[in-house]
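Sample 3 of the quickstart, ligand CU-O-CU linkage:
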Amino acid sequence: MSAQRISATARLPVPHLQLKLSSWRAVRAAVFTLGAGAIHLTVMPQHFQEYPPSGAFFLLSGLAQVGLSAALLFSTERLIAIVGAAGNLTIVALWAVSRTVGLPIGDDPWHPETVGVADAAATILELIAAWNLVRLARRPWRPVPALLRLRIRSALAMVPGLLLTIVGVGAGTGGMPASINMSAPTAPGQAAVPMESLKAALGNEPLLNFALVAELAQIGGQTAWTFNGTVPGPELRVTRGDRLRVTLVNHLPASTTIHWHGVRVSNAEDGVAGVTQDAVSPGATYTYEFVARDAGTFWYHSHQDTANQLTRGLFGALVVQPRQGPLPDRDYALIFHEFPGHPIISPGLQGLAGYIGQAVSGQRVAVNGTIGDLRLQALPGERVRLRLIGALEGEQFGPLMMVAEPLELVAVGSCYQIVAIDGGDLNAPQCIGPERLRLGIGQRYDISFVMPATGTVRILDPRGHESVTLGNGPAPAMPDLKSLPLFDPLGYGRPAPDPVLGHGIDMTYQVVLGEEGGIRNFQPELIHTINGKAAPMGTTYLVRQGQVVRLHIVNETDEFHTMHLHGHDLSVLDREGAAPRGSPLNLDSLLVGPHERWNVAFVADNPGLWMFHCHVLLHAAMGMSAMISYEGVTTPYDLGARSGNLPE
Ligand code: C2O
Ligand code: CU
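Result:
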């Protein structure tokens, strides 16, 4: 029966095809080489965008690998095995150099690249292919007896190759679904509201023009991604009621955006890639325009590939001064951030490797770009306002270094008032002595004090990372920082009516913060969820204009999460059932401790599609991101692999 079938096949127009079919080893080498080629072709477009010669390299090596696998299937030339082994090993060698000392050319010469899942998979495939090819070249070529008599063992040997190819290609696409649209459903009888129509109406506010050029710069021997060549980017200081027109010019090798963190902008100016705009391509420009409605301390940062781009340096301070009232003698905005360089923040295996590296080498914490002690001018008797901005993921600890404990800061040398948190003024803030202030990433604390007659005021991190010194006198007496009490915002200042809480609550939503190990975006990952769902297929909370919405936040994890809502302020109702005993709190970035429960509320008075996410960049990148969407608002933008818009 089978003999008949073989002879039947032999009479096909291309009989030599089967007769010359190579050995099982050659087939195996072909499968592994083809897998590596497929991965190279998948990542090729991305590399073209970053550095065209490297895109060309991936195109050529991918095509060569596809060609080699075809040749291996149908030819028995020993030369092919030798050339194939040499080619694969050359690619592996180049990879090894690029991941250790760095390649001499590229968009970042002589700097090692991080190891990703896609390139690791391709390298393993190439090594196995090369090993098979070397053995093939040394032994007589044994043709496959007959393709129809498939040997189970030989076939099984190719399964790992196929799996590695799937993982590598999946990771190479960024693991993102091709395209997702965040438009909100329209209620029956309701007209759709296009997001682009949600812009601040032109008024006669004073107009201020700024240009922020996103560009590479060498800082401390590292290539940083900067606005206007510095990290942080330039401080934008305006007065309440000003209209800002900010032109973003992108000279980076990747697309980017600017988000105005904490500012209640109109939705179209929110800077979220794939939701409120397309990320701005290399070489392109984009203009944001909004009115600074509230005085306070804010900051701006990229909201495209945020975990990567913010860590590389794309952020800066935005200070809105009040139009009336006394100004302090000195007013400094201080951003506490990771020293820029190669980001080590990314989900999955890569993130894990980065965290271990960070644990070994120690974090490099900086204040306004300075590592060590930042010195600032202030004279005895002067009133000083310090705007402390948290841009630091926090200190990692716990199994797998996955828990980030927020930065703590202590002010010594003078009693001080905490006059505002997240831009919102506190009511009747009393002068307090040294306490540990927790500053989660995204949060802002404004403190105010009078310089002592002699001596300095210092801001210190109890873990000893960084410090700021104001004035020139002798150093103040130093308490034992680690044993100081923790500042509790819920028991500070004096009660006052909260404008939001005067209204009745219209609806309540559950916000359950969770985590579970699993596979996401083709990588093993500690998936971070809101109500069991991870972004970009995350939870959407639908609201209607005018509603007062309560969020019942339950943290089921052992981690801190800074929950940040775009475009709105959250009024604190209670934490663990206890209402604030002091000043009302209107926050945009809520630091939720392990296993804490909070109730907060906001007035839906700013229509649009708004992100609500954990600002610990790694957590957001692992899925902890939701949307608060006004019914009927639609967006023409998509996120996902096809558009290249990746807001986390
Ligand atoms: Cu500071 Cu959604 O960001
Ligand atoms: Cu978090």
